[in-house]
Amino acid sequence: MDERLKRAAETGNIDALYSFIHHDANVFKRIDKMEFVDTPLHIAAVTGNNGFAMEMMNLKPSFTRKLNQDGFSPIHLALLSGKPEMVIDFLSIDENLVRLKGREGFTVAHYAARDVNVHLLSQFLDVCPDCIFDLTMRRQTALHIAAESKNFEAFKVMLEWIQKTFKDSRSTRIKILNLQDKDGNTVLHLAASNNQPQMIKLFVKCKEVDRKKINQLGFTAMDVLQRETLADNRTSVKILKSNPHRFSKFSNFNGILTDYFKEMKPETINALLVVFSLVLSMTYQAILSPPGGFAEDGAAGSNNKDSREGKSVMTSTNFILFYISNGVAFFISFVIMISLFDVESTESIMYFLSPINLMVCFCYGVALSTIAPSTTLSLVIVCTTIIVHYSLYFIWSGHHRHFRKK
């Protein structure tokens, strides 16, 4: 590059830039033909001459994506040189520069995750959400880089952003959080290899994290952690062995279904609501009108305590076979209905609808125990009803907490 043009870029002298263009109108064309080169835009990015850089981007937009001999673009150099204002100016021209790969496949998001530039990292994620999927040559995301670099703040920012941005897509969360790099290591493997208890604790709280993933050496994250002997890893081992979701499996079950249903078309959801509403009605009607009807007391005014008046005429075996199938259909329909309403309804509607559904389920159990042909069956049904009712209550409780977090 001509020394006069280089000095103009270093000092930010726009007049000198145009003076040189008057002298040699094809100078940028020749520079652009070179595969790897330091352009005036690269120099301005390092020195932080924002005005000159913006002028260059206006004159020659292709320079923004040109890599120099070291594999860096102007936006890479601006970030690595500590010129955040320059980086923001670049993004104001082209947001997709966040995804521009340089040396070793690194984007500016990877560097921000490595160097704990949390403010810029947040902006990168906001202006270009897809940058979270970008991989280096070692197939690592920015989340991998943060875990490998022991940068908890950057790690926390990205993890919270992922949960918020992809809250309606469980499959996307599973993909990002369990992605394996070139060596088969997940983010959890890298956090474990560096013995980062804070990072591990925050990460395993995500239900989508697969702790049993193995890398190319056949090791899980726990294996990697237990092989770490250079530091006291007891805290990390304890965290990784714990199960923060042990008591929330039932309460979060409807959340899993809801994530699945949210990927369906509204017409499909409405059709399923109709179908499962009919199933609920049919199964409940089977209690009001059991097969064969009810037994009648032939002796009026009889004081016989063993009277079967009002009980099902079915034998105990047939009663159990019929109503187990009926009950399973009823409760499955109930859980699916809650998940479908979660997709279609507002918080206020669900807050009142869920307890009403719980009362209907309780009434189902009471009615079933009432018509049972024997006292033993009635007691069994009562106990089962209580257990199922409390299970459904936990599901509703988790559903209500899910809304409050929103």
TrEMBL record:
PROSITE patterns: ANK_REP_REGION (PS50297), ANK_REPEAT (PS50088). The lineage of its organism: Eukaryota, Viridiplantae, Streptophyta, Embryophyta, Tracheophyta. The keyword RNA-binding does not apply. SUPFAM superfamilies: Ankyrin repeat. Residues 267-365 form the PGG domain. The chain crosses the membrane at residues 269-287, 320-341, 348-371, 377-396. This is PGG domain-containing protein. ANK repeats lie at residues 183-205. Keywords: ANK repeat, Membrane, Transmembrane, Transmembrane helix. InterPro entries: Ankyrin_rpt, Ankyrin_rpt-contain_sf, PGG_dom. Gene3D superfamilies: Ankyrin repeat-containing domain. The keyword tRNA-binding does not apply.
